[in-house]
Write a structure and sequence with these properties.
By secondary structure, this protein is of the alpha+beta class. It has two domains: 156 residues, Alpha-D-Glucose-1,6-Bisphosphate, Chain A, domain 4 (2-Layer Sandwich); 162 residues, START domain (Alpha-D-Glucose-1,6-Bisphosphate, Chain A, domain 4, 2-Layer Sandwich), CATH 3.30.530. The chain is 25% helix and 41% strand. The chain has ten helices and 16 strands. The strands form two sheets. Strands 1-2-8-7-6-5-4-3 form an eight-stranded antiparallel sheet. Strand 5 and strand 6 form a beta hairpin. Helix 7 packs across helix 8. The longest helix is centred in the C-terminal third of the chain and has 17 residues. The two termini are 35 Å apart.
Amino acid sequence: MPVTDVTTDPENLTLTILADFAAPVERVWTAYSDPRQLERFWGPPGWPATFTAFDHTVGGIAQYRLDGPRGEKSSGRWEFTRIEAPTLFEVLDSFVDNAGEPIAEFPAMRMTLEFSPTAEGTRMVGTSHFESAEALEQVVAMGVIEGTKMAMSQLDTVLQDLRDYAQGKGTRIELLDDTHVRITRLVEGPRDLVWRAHYEPQLMRQWLLGPDGWEMTECTVATEPGQTYRSSWAPVGDTPGQAFGFEGEALLVSAPRRAVTTEKMQGTDGPVTLNDLNLYEEDGATLITLLVEYPDLATRDMILATGMVDGMEASYARMEDLVLA
C-alpha cells in the first residue's frame, strides 16, 4: 500500500500522512490535479468520488461528493489557497451540505500536499492542520485515517497504464479487511458492452457460467434500485454438482459505471453479501472491479474457499471469447 506512516500530533494540531509511489513526481501531480483521475481514488472502496466542480487555480473551488453503497452521501469542498506545480498544493478542506455550504458541526482543516522525488519514485507528505485538539479527535474518530489508507491503496492502478497494471494477470483478489474483498479483472472490450454483458440475459447466458459443464437456467435482472433479480445454474449431462441460484435486490444502478446489489443463496435467509460492481474503460479495455462486503470474517473465508474466484476467471475468459470478441 502507498501509505507508509500516519502521525497525529495533538500538540501541533496536525495529522500527517506519508505515502510512497512508484511513479515520477509529474505523474503523481497529474493524478491529483485531474478530477477524472482523482475520482478513481479519492474516496475509499465502496465510496467513489464524483467531482462536480474543479477550478485548479489559487482561489478556485473544487466540489465533490462520495456515494456510499447503500445510498449514503458525503460531500466536501476544497478552496485552493496555494499551488506550486508539480510539488505542492494547499487547500481549505470543508465538509459541506447538499447546497455546497460548510457544515458547522464538522471541522474544516487546512490540507497541504507536498510531492518530492525519491530513488523509487515519489514521496507524498500530506499534512492537515486543525483549529483545535477536539477537531482533530473528531476527524480521527470518523475513520479518516482508515479511509485514507484504503482510498490511496487504489492509486497504483491510476498511476499505471491500465494494461500494464492488469493485462494477462487474470482475476485477482485482495483482502482489504476482515469483511471486504476487492476482485479485479481486465477484459478487452468497451465499457458499454461489458455493462450489457452483465445486464442483458441473452448475453449473460453465454458467459456467466463458471466452470465448463454448467448452464444458466434462470436469469431475471434488476435494472433499477428496488428491483430484485434471480440467477440459477444447473450441471449439464454428466457434470457433477447440484443446481443452485442467487437472488437479491438492486440498491444502486448507474449505467454503465456502477451497480450495487445484495446477494444470497436462493431459498435461504443468508448470509447476505453486498456486491459493488464498478467498470472503468481506458483505451478500449475495461477494468472490472467487484467490491464484496461480507457480514463477518468466517463468512468471507467460507465463501472464498468454495473456489469462487476460479469460477469467476472461467466466466470472464468466456466473456472475452464469446461476447466481447
